[in-house]
Amino acid sequence: MNPDSFPDFLEHLGGPGIPRFISGLAQLEQARKRALSAGSPPPPLDSFSLNPSLQINPVSWTGLVPLFQRAKQRDLDRVAPGNEIILTWCAPEDGALLTRVAGQGDLLAIKLVAEEIAPSDAAREAGVAVGVIDAVLREAAGKGLIVSPPSKLRREDAIADVAPRADFTVAEVFTLQWHLTQECDLHCRHCYDRSSRRPFPFERALTLLDELHDFCRSRFVRGQVSLSGGNPLLYPQFTELYRAAAERDLMIAILGNASDRATIEQLAAIRMPVYYQVSLEGLQQHNDEIRGAGNYRRTVDFLRTLTAMGVPNMVMLTLTRHNLGQVIPLAEELEGVTGGLTFNRLALFGEGASLELPTPEEYRAFLESYAAALDSHPVLTLKDSLLNTIFERDDSGLFGGCAGYGCGAAFNFVSILSDGEVHACRKFPSPIGNILSDSLEVVYTSAAAQRYRAGSSACAGCSLNAVCRGCPAVTASLGLDPFTEKDPFCFKCPSSQPS
């Protein structure tokens, strides 16, 4: 018998002990065999494509899928007449054979890709934001029903004489660190910019969100806006901008100060932020000397509120010589309060120039203690790229560094100031354009951006190049050239020491 005709044969076969749904089961068995034999061609280059192993089978029974997962007697008893569309495919990443009941989103994504319907056209016809359609396609790609081209956000400066670290050279997310306003309800002693700048024009903000959406779609990466300031919540149209970002299926983070529960509930109802980041500068007395009386208690209470609401949150600390010894004690106070505590080294710009960095010896000792405390203090998280010098030495596994790809300045993020200036990194003057006069595409591909993206020539050839490159903001703040000199706190190789 031709195997393709076997389900039809079973459809008409009766008799004691032969379930009526046996033909549907045979149909799905055939689909699974075809999926396994389809093979896995290379991913497409320029657009989504259907997974070549995908099989689509309408069946006249419900409850057949569990029979391929466990086949208990209760599963057999739950099979009933009804209509379902069953999808069978092999996962692109590992070849695992999957059989699932199709959801409406699955079928829509398959239709859009099969018929080459543009997301913007589909959104217009359905009367929804284009981000809704993007989310449907993204979810289907996550399941492996459709296949996305690989990210085109790749390091151009390949390491010629070092084994490549592919996991850290291809970004999957691009972020705008967006300083919407200079207005702030605090006046911190280490603030790097108290200059007077007008708030970002709202109409341009909306077109910039569209540019970010298109920029990321063309490179097959997710887009994120990290809304900052000043205090971003003081931006006059903050809620409207937040909603507009969500409508474009952008991930949203907030880098701000403590707020009230009602405000957070309003934002979470629009879209849950990927995280809400606040700052603490050490234990209560030291923090309040830097950030103002009562700030520590307000911030910790706010973190408890966020955690109770299920809003992901974290704490950023600006590391100076004076709070070096307070990081681990602060971690102990924040256990169970927040999802993470990490630090950035102080860059000696703005009002922060009046503070002190630790000496390289003090900083190295601090990194050793921080690395040793990671296992016993789960709230501590990784950011400073120079921790990789310790992890490499101890052969304990590297992490992605400051931005997930070493220094990600002008690579997987750029910083936009409220007056439109674009910088490779907000921590130091690193201008690469102005978004009020140029598009995001023009700014990102500019020669100035490419120069910062390449990093320091002093780090070329280092085995940690892909996950470190030091901190150019700290380097520049000590009067060194971030394009030709290495981070003076790096102790992997001998270097000049900061004064």
Please give a structural write-up.
The longest helix has 18 residues, at 202-219. Helix 4 (104-114) crosses helix 6 (130-143) and helix 5 (119-126) packs across helix 6. The protein starts with 5 loop residues before the first helix and ends in a 22-residue tail after the last helix. The protein is built from 17 helices and 14 strands. It has 499 residues and is of the alpha/beta class. The protein has a nine-stranded mixed β-sheet. Helix 12 links the parallel strand 10 (313-319) and strand 11.
Q: What is the gist of this entry?
A:
The protein is α/β, with parallel strands linked by helices and 499 residues long.
Low-confidence stretches: 158-164
Helical amount among residues, as a percent range? 25-40%
- N- to C-terminal separation? 85 Å
Enumerate the strands of the largest sheet in spatial order, edge to edge or round the barrel. Answer: 11-10-9-8-7-6-12-13-14
The beta-strand count equals: 14
Average the pLDDT over all residues and give the rounded result: 91
Sheet-strand content, in percent, reads: 15-25%
Secondary-structure class: alpha/beta
- Give the biggest sheet: 9 strands, mixed
Number of alpha- plus pi-helical segments: 17
Tell the overall outline: elongated
- How big is the Rg? 27 Å
